[in-house]
Amino acid sequence: MHPRTRRLPRTLASATVLALLAVPATAVAAPEPVPTPEAHPGNAAGTGSADPADKISSAAAKVFDARGTTDYWLRFAEEPDLSAADSITVWSERGRYVVDTLTEAAESSQARAIAALEESGTEYTSYWATNAILVEDGTLEQATELAADVQVAEVLPTTQHSVEEPESTSAVAPSAAETSTYGIRSINADDMWDLGFTGEGIVVAGLDTGVSRSHPALSAQYRGTATGSNSYNWFDAARAGSSTPRDDHGHGTHTMGTMVGTDNGSTNIGVAPGAQWIAANGCADACRDSWLVASGQWLLAPTRTDGTGADPARRPHVVNNSWGMSRTDDPFMEDVIAAWEAAGIFSTWSNGNDGEFGCESSGSPGARQASYSVGAYSSAGSIAAFSSRGPGQKGVVKPDISAPGVNVLSAVPGGGYEQWSGTSMAAPHVSGAVALLWDAVPSLLGDVQRTRAILDGAAHDVNNTACGGTADDNNVWGEGKLDVLAAYQLAQSQSFTETPAPAISGTAKVGTALTATVPAWTPAATFAYQWRRDSNPADGVPGTMISGATGSTYTPTGRDAGTVLTVTVTGTADGYLPAPVTSAPTAVVQKTAIKATNPSISGTVRVGSSLRALSNSWTSGTRFTYQWKVNGAAISGATAFTFTPRPSDRGKKLTVTVTGTRRGYDGATRTSAAKTVGYGVYTQGRPRVVGSPAPGATVKIVAPPSLPSAATTTYRWMVDGRAISGATKSSYRIPSSWKGRAISVSVTRKGTGYTTKTVASTGRTIGARFTSIPKPKITGITRVGSTLRVNPGTWRPGAYRTYQWYSNGRPIAGATGTTYKIAGAHLGKKITVVVTGRASGRATTDTSSDAVTVYRPYDTMPAGWWYVGADSVPAATYVAQAGSNDCIWERVSAAENVLGGDIGSGQRIATAKSTDDSFRSVDCGTWVRHYPGMVTPRTTVPADGVYILGDQLERGTYVTSGPVAAGEMCYYAFIKEFTGLESRAHLVSQRMVDEPTTITMPSTAKGFETGGCRWYRVS
């Protein structure tokens, strides 16, 4: 640990609590419905407060005060923008988009808090359907510390809701007088059956007390009956471990019977008996908020009974919610409702059974703007006395609509049937009606807002303004009485009469543009386009949506080769339902010729010199293989981007053959122009005469190693610049008569294929020995960036001294003083210094220090929170090796505002600026100050990491085969500075790619980042 560093104080021993920036290329924005000042896990409201104590809600503070320790919610501010889901027409893709977007947002914003909770050993559950964490048995001190994370919006207590208990119950016997319940007849569901619409193909779900699977009116419609498994069809949050549908209360069975039940032997009880059902048990005697959130999340992506294999494609189309909290405007579940709607799920809510309290008696969530809530009326057509009245949130009219809810006959556990009353009984009539409507009008499926509008527009108005509102939309009845037949007829009147399919023109070939032409619709429409691959409308195969292919023209890429393409146009016009129509498939997309040019050889073509094969201009994303050749013959093993000619290659013609391949293209092979391999050149430093060159003394030669190593080495001693006969050994005894002359030595390197290299030492004056020649001593910290000093000792007689510092025996250019600041290039090497002494009449003498090893820089930062400054962590650029961890770092101001930051795995780089107050990180490992030259620049890039161009990564042209993970996108960015600015101003550019891509490092970039793609240099 850096001994000069002051660590910032923390009272939460568990971990560093940080704010977290989003992953690059992920944009977030506030979703609809309109956020409100209130906050609760499960709502879409609120933003982070600057003071952690201000984030502790008054309700949470009271619970902490009363209990000391308690379960509580951490709700996070980040609200991902899900609006793009509206344009995704394929059910599976739409659900996957919503789940992935929510999951990414939760992972990024919750990372800091989760790290703290993990380190402290606190039990917790993270949710993504609502961006929140349920913390178990925590303290106020802990909650306040966690709230210091700027991503945390609020700390809230846990709560309980309840099922809307029936107003009355009575057992009844089957009646032969009626073929359907009055509720079915009242909303004209039986008329929809007569038209052939029973809800077939639609899946409804009950978030309730469970469902009795074995009930004869429900067993056939259970989706698990058809699949032979409870996986993806049943979730029990209230009674963990229950792997088969059950209902210990009866409420969930009764509501499900109203939605999809068959008959009791004589009377039809279900509005949509052709639909299938699944269920989530979020309630027992009460409905804990954690059970409800877990259930709401499961409904977005059902799992196996063991909780694995989440699959958004198996989510329901409709969710009935006959539960709530009496006479409150609590925004609980609001962001879950928004997520359901984004995923195309229609949710129905009971409005409450507190009508006896008069106006403003609606309960939450039904009272919220985001909810579509239902009031109850009787078989006589009168509003039920118990049916809660509006207005709701911010004066919005509640309920939204009314449906039969008094003495409703439906199924109960044990195989029986009972009449129950409540808005709980009214809501499933609407859920069943939506199933019928979506069966009858497929263009409405997933369009929640338009479906609401049609239900509202078709409802029969009832004038009752006792609690406010208008004759046709009031706080007693809402829009009026539900009529599903009228809704169907209204939808039909809003449908286009002529919707001819688009036609695709052009040749189905990679790189050749295709054009979609749409014949005129009646009435005239505006069109949106979505191209797909491997779609077959005739067989109901949706294929795969092509990201970004949303214009009337599309140019097939390599990924499309061997597939067929279609285009779906969605026509819109004022007053009409959007209608998607898909073209016939194209012919199978054919490959095309790859763009290819002749490669070139970069470097000096001579023995021992490293060469590179530059591919030059090819189709972007082309992968290459290499074969180096001499005189046209392949060199065994020479199949890399680089090649070093051998001595045996001298004088021969060298070429490189490059073969390029890319999915969807016909490969190509090109060969470079031939170049003759020249003689290699040795790099040789100047040798030194070692020892005191006094008359009669023996001196030796010390020569730096040559690059490359030579086959033979010879020496030649000289006096006054002339060769001494026979003096060819590594040492020489100086004759006694040569005082005042100059002794020197040369070294000659020879090898096959190389030009002979001779280098001579400087001359040393022969004279009397110095009486004292001390061994110099190196002092200082032997780390990169530190300064070393030499203590030459005392020479006798006094001498004029010069200095030369060496690294691994080779002189360091410019390092000729008594001090030397260690450069990054010398990391891991041996440093010595040679002191040369001169004096009149004395032999010019060299003496060398002992070697010291250079270690990594002194300035390091372990994970944590550190001040930036001269007496702590210096302002500089730092490098960390995070491995597979998601490293998160931030620059922080004195006011604890985040100035910049980043998240990612692999190598990470951050610059702490002199104006920063502090720097904090987690899961990054140790940060090491960067000095140029500490590593050899690489030509390949792992899937994740950040690199300094020209120092850690060579500049040039690189190619990737696309994302490492199939079906994912990968990210890359060119970086101007490593400051992680939230505005992204520190970037030159950034891009997401999902296919093979070629890039060239721009001169304006200092760094390169990649996430999810491997890259290698090709030019």
Largest sheet: 7 strands, parallel
Q: Which topology of one domain does CATH recognise?
A: Rossmann fold
Task: Identify the CATH homologous superfamily of one domain.
Answer: Peptidase S8/S53 domain
Poorly predicted regions are: 1-49, 173-177
Under CATH at level 1, the class of one domain stands as Alpha Beta
Structural class estimated from helices and strands: alpha+beta
Radius of gyration from CA coordinates = 39 Å
Query: So, CATH architecture of one domain?
Result: 3-Layer(aba) Sandwich
How many H/I helical runs?
A: 12
Strands side by side in the biggest sheet: 8-9-7-11-13-14-15
Estimated share of beta-strand residues = 25-35%
Mean pLDDT: 90
Total DSSP E strands: 68
Fraction in helix? 10-25%
Question: Outline, from the CA principal axes?
Answer: elongated
Distance between the termini: 42 Å
SSE topology:
Elements: H1 58-67, E1 69-76, H2 91-120, E2 124-127, E3 132-139, H3 140-147, E4 152-157, E5 160-163, E6 169-171, H4 182-186, H5 189-194, E7 203-208, H6 223-227, E8 234-236, H7 251-260, E9 276-281, E10 287-288, H8 289-300, E11 318-321, E12 323-324, H9 334-342, E13 346-350, E14 373-377, E15 401-404, E16 408-412, E17 416-420, H10 423-440, H11 448-458, H12 484-493, E18 503-505, E19 514-517, E20 526-533, E21 544-545, E22 553-554, E23 565-572, E24 579-582, E25 592-593, E26 600-602, E27 611-614, E28 623-630, E29 633-634, E30 642-643, E31 653-661, E32 665-666, E33 668-671, E34 675-676, E35 680-681, E36 688-690, E37 698-702, E38 712-719, E39 722-723, E40 731-733, E41 742-750, E42 754-755, E43 757-760, E44 764-765, E45 777-779, E46 787-791, E47 800-807, E48 810-811, E49 819-821, E50 830-838, E51 845-848, E52 852-853, E53 860-861, E54 864-867, E55 877-881, E56 887-892, E57 898-904, E58 907-911, E59 918-922, E60 927-929, E61 940-941, E62 944-948, E63 957-960, E64 970-975, E65 987-993, E66 997-1000, E67 1007-1011, E68 1015-1017
Parallel strand pairs: 7-9, 7-11, 8-9, 11-13, 13-14, 14-15, 25-32, 35-42
Antiparallel strand pairs: 1-3, 1-4, 2-3, 5-10, 5-12, 6-17, 16-17, 18-19, 19-22, 20-21, 20-23, 23-24, 26-27, 27-30, 28-29, 28-31, 31-33, 31-34, 36-37, 37-40, 38-39, 38-41, 41-43, 41-44, 45-46, 46-49, 47-48, 47-50, 50-51, 50-52, 53-60, 54-59, 55-58, 55-60, 56-57, 56-59, 61-68, 62-67, 63-66, 63-68, ...
Helix pairs in contact: 7-10, 8-9, 10-12, 11-12
